[in-house]
Write a structure and sequence with these properties.
Layout: E1 7-11, H1 23-31, E2 34-37, H2 40-50, E3 57-59, H3 65-77, E4 82-85, H4 98-106, E5 110-114, H5 119-127, E6 134-136, H6 144-152, E7 160-165, H7 170-181, E8 185-190, E9 198-203, E10 218-222, H8 233-244, H9 250-260, H10 266-275
Parallel strand pairs: 1-4, 1-5, 2-3, 2-4, 6-7
Antiparallel strand pairs: 7-10, 8-9, 8-10
Helix pairs in contact: 3-4, 6-7, 8-9, 9-10
Length: 276
Amino acid sequence: MPLTSPSLWVVATPLGNPGDLSPRACEVLQAADIVLAEDTRRAGILFKQTGVAVRKLASFHDHNEEAKARSFVDAMKEGTVLALVSDAGMPLFSDPGYRLVRLARQEGLSVSVVPGPSAPLTALAASGIAPQPFTFLGFPPRKRNDQERFFAEFRTVRTTLVFFERKNRLAETLAAAHAVLGPRELCVARELTKTHEEFILTRLENHADVPQDLLGEITVVIGPPEQVERPGEEDVLTLVEEESASGGKPRDIARRVRERAPGWSVDEIYGLMRRG
């Protein structure tokens, strides 16, 4: 596809090492009429480091994508060539761009991708955990109850799970994942391709051992479900009786039981308690 054609180019940028910006990416970024960046300051620093001279840089992020997508598509229809980059890695993966690409496709405009760095694939490739099939989850919800419901949707899905998380929420998210998913392989990857790149290889049931003072961008890889027998209802009710002796509200008891009953969610245990 010629660079002069009215089109949208989705361009992967380095996760941390500027040397990972491909020659083709440089060519497209310099030829585009406008480069849309999630953070123009960060993009400007990258372009300076790599010697890429862009014609025009415009802000395009989660908070303005819906408002700006139409005007950019209209510009493309007039012959403007756009390039889209995120803060790092492949755009659209938990980054803005989906609405723009979808609208461009609906309008019959050409869209092409300059592939390159991707945090989910990089973490998966180095984790030593089964790479296929895998499911990318983006960012989990923030609240514990929402997290548990979120992971419950993937409890019986026999794939490796990959997602992003922020350092200040990692400990609670891993705890929620373990409570719902049970024992599995775990890799916590941080600062991918950077000087302090680190892969913490452990198991989900040992999530409390993962340092809580990790810095940088974090990608989590959780292995597929293992052959662990799910306790029956009678066994769970026995656990409920044991935990009830320690006191607490029904939901608190259900949470404690859940730690001892792999494959059961808090909602399921709570429902069983109400029936029984």
